From TrEMBL:
Entry keywords, A to Z: Glycosyltransferase, Transferase
UniProt cross-references to Pfam families, sorted A to Z: Pribosyltran
Boundaries of every Phosphoribosyltransferase domain copy: 167-217
Name used for this protein in its record: Predicted amidophosphoribosyltransferases
Entry-linked InterPro entries: ComF/GntX_DNA_util-trans, PRTase-like, PRTase_dom
Similarity field: Belongs to the ComF/GntX family.
Molecular function GO labels: glycosyltransferase activity
Length: 222
């Protein structure tokens, strides 16, 4: 861990000690996550599609309590919430990982790592009982995807990732939240270009389709 990451971790610990604790889902006092909000994180594996050839298995819908908890985990440094989010990701991985597959994650930028002091997706994968490998690297840092349409998102991440080494066999690539699937699709492309023969995509959560459009997610029976 770098010096900056250690400092960021120390600051998070200090804030946790001095600031009042509240539920990440509903702001109930004196608890990191209340029982009611924890129940809202029960895994609900479903399959979304990024184009005709890329199914993405997701553990939750990114809305309501789940969305608030994921934001607190990612943006407020509340890393202990990974324990509560991990079952949903574990369920999605269980529905996706073929025998012998390697698990990797969509890489985050150096600036994001310095700001947070940790890699959220890597932490989630470890809490879900898998060992993530750093098989991808950033060739360039895409712009923030928020507010972009489907085509703009695809263009924004085009060519952003490359494999760190030649690959073969099965690889599962994991992200935290999928909206259009453009980021995962580009990660899958880079892994296939490096030689991986069976590449699958998984996300902790997916955003529901915009109002007026059809939600094409398929519930996976477990």
């Amino acid at each position: 861990m770098t010096l900056l990451a250690l400092i960021a971790s120390g600051l998070r610990d200090a804030l946790t000690f001095w600031l009042p604790l509240a539920c990440a889902g509903c702001d109930a006092p004196d608890v990191s996550l209340c029982d009611g909000c924890r129940a809202a994180l029960v895994p609900r594996p479903s399959r979304r599609h990024a184009g005709p050839s890329l199914p993405i298995v997701c553990g939750l819908r990114f809305e309501g309590i789940a969305a608030r908890v994921i934001r607190a985990f990612k943006e407020e440094g509340r890393t202990a919430l990974a324990r509560d989010l991990a079952p949903a990701l574990a369920a999605a991985l269980a529905a996706s990982v073929p025998p012998g597959a390697r698990v990797t994650t969509v890489p985050s930028s150096s600036a994001a790592f310095r700001r947070r002091g940790y890699r959220p997706v890597d932490l989630l994968v470890r809490r879900a009982g898998r060992r993530p490998e750093r098989l991808l690297r950033l060739r360039r840092s895409p712009e923030d995807q928020r507010g972009l349409g489907d085509r703009a998102r695809r263009e924004n991440v085009r060519g952003a990732f490359a494999a760190r080494r030649p690959l073969d066999g099965a690889v599962v690539v994991v992200d935290d939240v999928v909206t259009t699937g453009a980021t995962l699709a580009e990660a899958v492309r880079a892994l296939r270009a490096a030689g991986a023969t069976d590449v699958r995509a998984v996300a902790l959560a997916h955003t529901p389709r915009r109002s007026g459009s059809r939600d094409e997610s398929e519930v996976i029976m477990t």
